[in-house]
């Protein structure tokens, strides 16, 4: 202890050497030395922050070692950043003022540029904490003094600090807007020093972003030419490094404040395209200029439609990108078809061109891009050079995702372009043509498959015969995969003989790449053709098993993994009876693999998890014996911790990991978080598989619930990966259902209903809480769906508190959704908003409807479960639901609002009568809504109110009938889209006849109702209505039979049609009552009447009816 005290005393003593040694140890390459130094440093920070700060300041002013000064600046910045290690409040006043003075003095004295930059960072960090409290009054005067000094170094420093302060505490700078404007103008126009101009540009751009009022931003419009001048002058004087810095800053502006550029858009974009076209410039510079234009095109939320107003520029940009695709070499290794040479010969120009075409098409859409492509691609295809053919095909594949709708309209032209290149003499062009077909099968499916299978599949089949070019062969197999994924068995089956036999040949190829391609294609073809694959099973399975057993050294790992995938998909396609015997052998192999130690990057794990789950789907309950082998590793994968590395976003010793595909980085505040994607993918796969098992095995999954629930419930809030959250959400109702079934079937090891309640008390609140924080609309809809299913399963196990929290969350969801819609409506007011943007808005709003749909479903479930006890909650929600009836709302929202009221009226009966005054006027009006779905919900509601409304409904009977009459007599009432509304209207008229006979002219209404029968669209209502008809005949209802029984033939006709339709239009009980009635009528009716009635039936109905009656 004493020794440590002495060491600390020496470090903090008057001699500066020991402290400098400590600093150098903190930078040591030796882990041991470094961690020892860190613990001493932290000890001093705890015990004597004052001396520590002064010591660091002392190194800054007096040390001759540049590394020590740099390190001290970084350490000081960390201590003065407002987080856990913020020491400022612990310092004495004199130390505080000393530090402030030293920092500003060092900026003036320091010679090293990199240290000055770090000093500016430190000053800005400290200022962002203490400026707002007015604890550094000297700082802004010092900065304005630097800006006007003659020393470029000081000017640059001041701008660097301005730029950071604008980010951290911009509001502190707004009062100086006039002074800043003139300083910026002066610097950008007249400073001879490029570094000062760049720092000035950075300060301007950060300042523009911190201004919240558009008037303030407009004051800076006149700086734009000067900002662009920074770029052009740097380029003209050959300072490309400076130009690239300027471009990066302007790209930031384009992404965050695109509308700032709008008034001078033509000049700015024109200048950028000139840079992109200038072949004398470095590639890096040209790529940044392209990035700027693409960023503007992508700034949809902030400036919708702006770039589509410049078609001449889009055409120029497209031409630039096409030219970049020509930058490709014909590398010999590409032809060898070893996997790692996939992109041999592709340059950085080529990859930027490829990526940007994709982004441009997604940002601007097909109506803008397809005309440009149709103009520029044909000359490329007609040119002699193979590179041009290749470029045209790559471009087509890249733009397909963004241009789907427009390309589907011009499918013939697109397919001709691609297929003509299948015969190209150059193998790389043939590869690109196949690649395009693969991409188009995904982006333009299933239209492409339906219309052009007879041209595409034979072309792919012959490409599989290209034995001279194994890479082309393998790619043709992969394209078969893409094509069949979007394909029905009917389309695929006629081609199976040819395709399967070719794939079997490829399976035996010496090239692993070709074998892998064939395996994935076979798997997909089996998956798409289902039981039609049975006839190939005996030929295919032996090959697959051979690969599974023999491909076991490291170089073949992927091959073995793909064989697993293929076997399991083939098994699922042909079904358990055909697959059962081989399944046993395959499981043995998988079990032995499962037991072996695999390396962490071995693809087998993830493929195996999926194969097991498919085998389970195929074998059903026969799979249970294997669960004890499958589950432990699966749980382990589901519990993987994300492999996260956290570093500061600007730390100097940044290991550049951006080129590492397996890491994904996200920046949060000033932290950079790197996540290993392979871990996340394995975790997501495992969670999906757990969900599959629970879904497939039902109560058989019971033994695992206690382990799976605590694994998945916390993952409802796993924000690193959407797939993990989606899987966890889908699994919740499955777990609850499994527990409930196990208890009901008495296989829950003696546990009873209270176990189901306990599980539901764990799952439902967790789902509600996760929904509250969920950022993604689509996942919100899935969570609501899962809550709905859980409520259906646990029913009355829910207590009032849980119902309350669901209702509160529904209020939140409705509010959040409405405000998202409002924001979209705001976007529609932007000056360049156009049809394309409108289409995108429509798609976003449709996703919103999915959320409303689920809200309606949950409320329906709660009403059905709790009936009148739910009404106090319904009253609370009414202010949220009433607006959904509005004329300004979408048809879907109106439909949902009506359905909720229908549920209340039907489930709560007398208790719901108090709502009729409010809701019936809306319901009556909605009967004639232009949307058939709204009409259906409204007329159904009238039927419910007629049945349960008693005297409250009576005064409205007349109006209800006339509204229903309009629906029934509509000229297109029986068109497919209208038939459900028609059937429900007929049913509602029937209810009025049944419950309000005394309020109607029954001699007219009843026969009119009979005339509409039978109804055949809504099978639920059909059973109700036909049963009612039966009862009326049994009671010899006067108005139904008519004077002198004149309507009997019609009744017999209806019975005949209902009986001939099998089980669809009547329950078995109703059908047997109808048969009895018909037999009675045979006895009692005069023969002539009977004969004429029979003759009105169709011949096959007569025969069917005779056999029904005589049996």
Automatic annotation (TrEMBL):
Signal peptide: none annotated. Residues 37-109 form the Importin N-terminal domain. GO terms for molecular function: nuclear import signal receptor activity; nuclear localization sequence binding; small GTPase binding. This is Importin-5. SUPFAM superfamilies: ARM repeat. It is found in: Cytoplasm; Nucleus. Pfam families: HEAT (PF02985), HEAT_EZ (PF13513), Importin_rep_4 (PF18808), Importin_rep_6 (PF18829), TPR_IMB1 (PF25574), TPR_IPO5 (PF25780). PANTHER family: IMPORTIN BETA (PTHR10527). HEAT repeats lie at residues 414-452, 919-951. Its main location: cytoplasm. GO terms for cellular component: cytoplasm; nucleus. Keywords: Acetylation, Cytoplasm, Nucleus, Protein transport, Repeat, Transport. The gene is LOC107775544. One of its GO terms (biological process) is protein import into nucleus. The keyword Oxidoreductase does not apply.
């Amino acid at each position: 202890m004493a020794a440590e005290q002495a060491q600390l005393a020496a470090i903090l003593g008057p001699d500066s050497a020991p402290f400098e040694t400590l600093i150098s140890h903190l930078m040591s390459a030796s882990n041991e030395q470094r961690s020892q130094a860190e613990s001493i440093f932290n000890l001093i920070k705890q015990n004597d922050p004052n001396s520590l700060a002064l010591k660091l300041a002392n190194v800054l002013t007096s040390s001759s070692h540049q590394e020590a000064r740099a390190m001290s600046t970084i350490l000081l910045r960390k201590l003065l950043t407002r987080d856990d290690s913020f020491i400022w409040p612990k310092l004495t006043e004199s130390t505080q003022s000393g530090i402030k003075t030293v920092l500003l003095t060092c900026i003036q004295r320091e010679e090293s540029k990199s240290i000055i930059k770090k000093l500016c960072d430190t000053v800005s960090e400290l200022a962002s904490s203490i400026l707002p409290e007015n604890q550094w009054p000297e700082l802004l005067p010092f900065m304005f003094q630097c800006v006007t000094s003659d020393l470029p170094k000081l000017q640059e420093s001041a701008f660097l600090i301005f730029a950071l302060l604008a980010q951290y505490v911009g509001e502190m700078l707004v009062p100086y807007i006039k002074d800043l404007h003139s300083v910026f103008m002066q610097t950008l126009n007249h400073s001879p020093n490029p570094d000062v101009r760049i720092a000035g540009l950075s300060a301007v751009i950060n300042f523009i972003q911190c201004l919240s009022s558009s008037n303030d931003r407009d004051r800076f419009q006149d700086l734009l030419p000067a900002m662009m001048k920074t770029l052009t002058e740097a380029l003209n004087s050959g300072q490309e490094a400076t130009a690239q810095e300027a471009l990066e800053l302007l790209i930031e502006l384009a992404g965050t404040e695109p509308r700032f550029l709008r008034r001078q858009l033509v000049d700015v974009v024109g200048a950028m395209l000139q840079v992109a076209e200038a072949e004398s410039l470095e590639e890096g510079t040209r790529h940044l200029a392209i990035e700027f234009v693409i960023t503007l095109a992508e700034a949809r939320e902030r400036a919708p439609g702006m770039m589509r107003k410049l078609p001449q520029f889009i055409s120029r940009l497209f031409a630039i990108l096409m030219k970049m695709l020509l930058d490709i070499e014909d590398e010999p290794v590409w032809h060898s078809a070893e996997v790692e040479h996939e992109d041999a010969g592709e340059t950085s120009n080529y990859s930027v061109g490829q990526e940007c075409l994709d982004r441009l098409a997604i940002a601007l859409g097909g109506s803008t891009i397809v005309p440009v492509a149709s103009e520029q691609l044909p000359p490329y295809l007609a040119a002699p050079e193979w590179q041009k053919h290749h470029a045209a095909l790559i471009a087509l594949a890249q733009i397909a995702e963004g241009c789907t709708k427009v390309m589907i309209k011009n499918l013939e032209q697109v397919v001709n372009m691609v297929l003509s290149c299948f015969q190209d003499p150059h193998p790389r062009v043939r590869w690109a043509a196949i690649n395009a077909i693969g991409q188009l099968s995904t982006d333009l499916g299933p239209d492409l498959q339906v219309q052009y299978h007879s041209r595409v599949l034979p072309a792919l089949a012959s490409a599989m015969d290209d034995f001279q070019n194994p890479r082309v062969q393998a790619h043709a197999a992969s394209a078969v995969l893409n094509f069949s994924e979007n394909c029905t068995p009917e389309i695929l089956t006629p081609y199976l003989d040819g395709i399967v036999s070719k794939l079997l040949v490829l399976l035996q190829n010496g090239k692993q790449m070709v074998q892998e391609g064939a395996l994935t294609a076979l798997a997909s073809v089996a998956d798409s053709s289902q039981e039609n694959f049975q006839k190939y099973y005996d030929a295919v399975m032996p090959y697959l098993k051979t690969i599974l057993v023999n491909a076991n050294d490291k170089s073949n790992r992927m091959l073995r993994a793909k064989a697993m995938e293929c076997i399991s998909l083939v098994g699922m396609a042909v079904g358990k009876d055909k697959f059962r015997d081989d399944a046993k052998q395959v499981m043995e192999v998988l079990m032995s693999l499962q037991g072996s130690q695999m390396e962490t990057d071995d693809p087998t794990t993830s493929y195996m998890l999926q194969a097991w789950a498919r085998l389970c789907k195929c074998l059903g309950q026969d799979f249970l014996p294997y669960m004890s082998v499958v589950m432990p590793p699966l749980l382990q994968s589901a519990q993987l911790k994300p492999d996260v590395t956290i570093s500061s976003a600007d730390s100097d010793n940044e290991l550049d990991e951006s080129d590492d595909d397996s890491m994904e980085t996200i920046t949060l505040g000033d932290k950079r978080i790197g996540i290993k994607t392979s871990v996340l993918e394995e975790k997501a796969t495992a969670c999906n598989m757990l969900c599959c098992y629970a879904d497939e095995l039902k109560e058989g999954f019971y033994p695992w619930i206690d382990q799976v629930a605590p694994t998945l419930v916390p993952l409802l809030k796993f924000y690193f990966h959407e797939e993990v959250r989606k899987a966890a959400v889908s699994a919740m109702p499955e777990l609850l259902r499994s527990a409930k079934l196990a208890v009901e079937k008495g296989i829950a090891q003696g546990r009873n209903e209270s176990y189901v309640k306990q599980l539901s008390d764990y799952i439902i609140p967790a789902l509600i809480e996760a929904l509250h924080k969920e950022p993604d609309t689509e996942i919100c809809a899935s969570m609501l769906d899962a809550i709905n299913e859980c409520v259906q399963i646990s029913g009355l196990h829910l207590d009032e508190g849980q119902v309350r929290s669901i209702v509160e969350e529904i209020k939140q969801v409705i509010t959040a959704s409405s405000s998202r819609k409002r924001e979209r409506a705001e976007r529609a007011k932007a000056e360049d908003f156009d049809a394309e943007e409108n289409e995108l808005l429509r798609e976003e709003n449709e996703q919103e409807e999915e959320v409303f749909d689920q809200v309606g479903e949950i409320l329906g479930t709660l009403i059905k479960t709790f009936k009148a006890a739910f009404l106090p909650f319904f009253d609370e929600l009414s202010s949220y639901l009433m607006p959904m009836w509005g004329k300004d709302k979408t048809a879907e929202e109106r439909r949902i609002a009506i359905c909720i009221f229908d549920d209340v009226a039907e489930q709560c009966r007398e208790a719901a009568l108090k709502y009729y005054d409010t809701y019936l006027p809306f319901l009556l009006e909605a009967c004639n809504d232009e949307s058939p779905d709204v009409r259906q919900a409204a007329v159904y509601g009238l039927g419910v109110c007629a049945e349960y409304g008693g005297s409250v409904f009576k005064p409205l009977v007349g109006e209800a009938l006339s509204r229903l009459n309009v629906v029934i007599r509509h000229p297109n009432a029986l068109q497919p889209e209208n038939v459900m509304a028609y059937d429900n209207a007929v049913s509602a008229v029937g209810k009025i006849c049944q419950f309000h006979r005394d309020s109607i002219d029954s001699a007219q209404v009843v026969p009119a109702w009979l005339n509409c029968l039978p109804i055949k669209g809504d099978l639920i209502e059909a059973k109700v209505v036909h049963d009612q008809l039966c009862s009326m005949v049994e009671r010899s209802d006067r108005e139904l039979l008519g004077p002198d029984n004149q309507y009997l033939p019609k009744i017999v006709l209806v019975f005949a049609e209902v009986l001939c339709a099998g089980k669809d239009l009547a329950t078995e009980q109703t059908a047997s009552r109808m048969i009895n009635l018909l037999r009675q009528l045979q006895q009692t009716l005069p023969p002539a009447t009977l004969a004429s009635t029979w003759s009105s039936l169709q011949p096959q109905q007569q025969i069917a009816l005779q056999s029904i009656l005589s049996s």
